[in-house]
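Changelog excerpt

This revision adds worked examples to the README so contributors can see how folded entries look when concatenated. The first example is reproduced verbatim below.
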Amino acid sequence: MADLPVTKNSDKESSPCNKSMLAKKSVLSVQFLCDCLLFTILGIALLLIRSVAEPHFHGFWCGDKSLSLPYKKDTVTTSLLLVTSLGGSFLMFAINENLVAVVEKGPFMGLKNVVFIQFKTYSIFFFGFIIDVMFVDAIKNTFGRQRPHFFDVCKPDVSQSNCTDTNGLDRWD
């Protein structure tokens, strides 16, 4: 019977496997920190677009029927829209990633690996979501037009004009 080599703890710490695992952990930590920094920068940019950027004011025609509809409350609130769209997407990602982990790696893949894979999936989705919201807000502020209930909500003062100006009204109070 052959004798098995005896290893010391100091030998295990310097083994190539442990070095590669430490390198992988440090890469994952740097990746996580970069993702957090990127989301912080994008969040600040989105807040600046929403709070500082002034929308472009367009003129209107006095008799414009497309702007004279009555105001109606939202049928779907913003919070409900965000909860269902983001929550539904995250739920589907979680189910999908857990199924993939079980099928490809077996049921004992490890919680840390599953959480990291899900974090990467959520990060990619959330990055696209923030970029999309930023572009939509920027385009709406630049090229947007008045809502169909503009006259009902803004109540522009057209008494100082005879509404015959061929350029439309650019100012209202």
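The second example, added in the same revision:
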Amino acid sequence: IKSLTLGCLICCILLLSGFVISLDEREKSFLKIEDSYNSEVNFEGVNNSCFLQFDGEWNKTFGGGYWDHGWCVQQTSDGGYIIVGDKSIDEFNSVAWIIKTGAYGEKIWEKFFDASATYVEEVHDGGYIVTGDCYLDPFDSDANIWLIRLDGSGSKVWERIFGGHRGSDVGYCVHQTSDGGYIIAGYTTSYSNTSDAYLVKTDRYGNMIWNKTFSSGCLAGSAFYVEETSDGGFVLTGWNAEGLWVIRTNSRGDLLWEKSFGESMDMGNYVHETSDGGFIVVGSTGLGPGSKNAWLIKLDSNGNMLWNRTFGGGASDGARGGCVTSDGGYVLVGMTESYKWYGDFDVWVIKTDSDGNREWGRILGLPGKAGQGGHCIQQTSDGGYIIVGDTYSRAPLPGDQGESDIWLVKIIPDNSPPGKPVVTGPATGRINRRYTINFSSVDPEGDDVYYFVVIWGLGTSGGWIGPYTSGETVSYSFIPPAEGTFDITVKAIDSHGWDSLMSDPLHVTFPKPYWLNLLPPFIQRILLYKT
């Protein structure tokens, strides 16, 4: 009997070996696609060609033949804009690039300096203050903070360089203070064996009054943004080894408190004191559904977290800039890989109310581009938004184009996103059998709608599908390759790039076939490749 049982077992294994190989190949194929954030899905009657036109108020690109980047933009008192970034002069070297434009992005003047520029602000007399970093000689490996004052036509008024006895010092942000001087935030390696957050206070002529370093112990840290607070002190944000870092000081730069949130490599890129005496922080975090997500945090006056919101999908997203809006809400700008529309990644704008609840989102890009990301956003006097960032070329467009170019974008919130999709489908399905869900979304303006499907733990629809008419019911099918319980969510976007809230999740279970329970556990593991 034992011999007969063993023989039957061997026969079962041999008979099922073809099925095992087939299942193995299906799972390997599916997992390979999942790694690139797609899935094996089958569409019937789906048109995957999305619109390929920029849909903002206007946009301008500035670039040459190499790598150019835009880091900061501010609306100026004459209704135009001031931009700072970097312009490559060859494959290995770049210079600071400062551009003044008119109200529609037309270039009025540009200036180049042998430095790197990261932040600009219009000052009280109509001139500009710029910070970044520079090197004292071409062979120096240690950077120094660069601070330059320009008049209204871009001519240099004065220039200051701050550096330590050893190591690098870099400025990321500068603001004019209430006493007419300036406050700079960045990092330094001149005073310890690693990088520290660095705060420099100057008088109105750029002469240093004091400087402060903030250490994260033996671990690295940096400040990316600083603002003066209502009591004359300062608040900084950046990162340290423990996560997103917020630092509060008095008017002399003495530490009042510091807080870290999230996990290693989370970072803050914008902070602002709110009307209640607390603070709003914009940044990026690894917490949430994807590898990176945009992050909005509300703190009280002592730095305690009141609430936080993450925005993102299953891939890499993030917020590089933000601002407080005239209605008391917040707007974030960055990039999205999860919901890419034009390229491999696109500019993502998210507007929230004062409690961080998402009001609308906008995905921006250019046709024929490899990708684009947003670095800075400001609300304009007409209620719209000005954004600067980068766009990466894949096809020639009008104007000077290089590997990457500065991208200046103006948008007006003159549309409404589609409604949150409603998703329906059976609560259970079968492994390796087609499973179908239905969903729909209504666009307030009646625009065509596209959809993005995420099967959490398995993959996505591989991109936006559509177009469909507003309110049309869409059927979506896929073949689940493995047992388990999964959440299915759907996001909608209209033909102008306004994206909806993610749908409520549909919970679906794909149980193990009942007949497998008749086999020994190790045979089940072989057949299902569970280890």
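Reviewer comment on example two: The first helix runs from residue 2 to 35. Confidence is low (pLDDT under 50) at residues 13-52.
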